[in-house]
# Entry
Amino acid sequence: MYPVLSGQNIYSKFKPESKSSDLRVSAERHERDLQVVSNRLQPASTQPKQRLDNEIGVEMETNSILSAIWETVVLLALVAYSWAHAIFISCLPTSWIAKDVRGEIALITGAGSGLGRGVALRLAKLGCNLVLWDIDETSNQATGDETRKLGVRAHTYKVDLCNREEIYKVAAKVKSDVGRVDILINNAGIVTGRDYMKCPDSLIQKTMEVNIMAHFWTVKAFLPGMMERNHGHVVTIASSAGYFGVRSLSDYNASKFAAVGFDESLRYELNQEGTDGINTTVVAPYFINTGMFDGVKLKFQKLLPMVEPDYACDRIVDAILRNQQVLMFPRTLYFMLALKGFLPCETQTLLNKACGLMNTMDDFKGRAKKE
Ligand SMILES: NC(=O)c1ccc[n+]([C@@H]2O[C@H](COP(=O)([O-])OP(=O)(O)OC[C@H]3O[C@@H](n4cnc5c(N)ncnc54)[C@H](O)[C@@H]3O)[C@@H](O)[C@H]2O)c1
# Structure
């Protein structure tokens, strides 16, 4: 829109300037103003065309408003449908909708103990062949022996997940020894459990390397094969500490928030690629009685007790069989996450204190180091 040219305005615009560059600018402005005046003085014969243009403009605007309304209605209908569908599927028993993993090859990191071993045994019972990775050769071997007794093939490899080169080297060996990997379960994890300022740099780095950086390297090694076949499953064992901060868990929290973010971004990327045969699952459990968090203090033990490893492993395998994308347990966590979305930070701190979460790690011992 051009400014209204009052007498004062016109005078000030045509006022001679002192410098030469200013003169050029002033001349250009002069020309523009003349153009405006001449437009206004155009003969009446051009006005019907202008009216026609205006009418076309109004019609186009109405059409785009109508199509925006239509798109919104369609989107709302799709949202309602997918929501109802998800609720319906979540009500069905796993046996009705479970995928068949017989003959599939699952790679599990941290398979030597806790959840890794429990999940390996359950998948073996379902006829899944295994590739087991752990830094602890003896315990990993024990998992291998137990799973072989169930009639499946199990290959064990010693891997230090802090070492990217080693991950790629062992991944190449797995491809030549075993071939493909259908289900990749990034499970290995460690926890320091110290106040941030008392946490040595080396431990912070190690936590990040095992709990998240290793996920990048293993996925990079095995996802291309899954994409070629449009078949596979990437499972990320994160933690409720990937959604809720806890005092004295800064490095662990950071690594688990990263794992949750990695899974979410990867899920969207695979969706956009159209690789509908590849699924992702992120698991975010509360404290589990595997020994990893030995010594933690829970104020409302009766209300929210530590989860038993057997229950945790059952839920994880269930989620894999159902292609469930996000799994949190106990279910209270879903409610707490929704609450976190709209409670002010001060209120969250107040509730954290009231629930004893500020002191959870005070007597933390963790898993005893092996000699
Ligand atoms: N236990 C819990 O309370 C709890 C809660 C939420 C999430 N999680 C997550 O579940 C996963 C499994 O936990 P868990 O309780 O079974 O732990 P765990 O300590 O029983 O098992 C972890 C395994 O990872 C292996 N590992 C550690 N560092 C490694 C490395 N550098 N390279 C290769 N392997 C290595 C260990 O040898 C061990 O076998 C972890 O990612 C953990 O963060 C555990």
Summary: The longest strand covers residues 278-285. Residues 110, 112-116, 134-136, 139, 159-162, 187-190, 210, 237, 239, 285, 287-288, 290-293, 367 surround nicotinamide-adenine-dinucleotide (CB under 6 Å). The beta strands are 105-109, 129-134, 154-158, 183-186, 232-237, 278-285, 326-329.
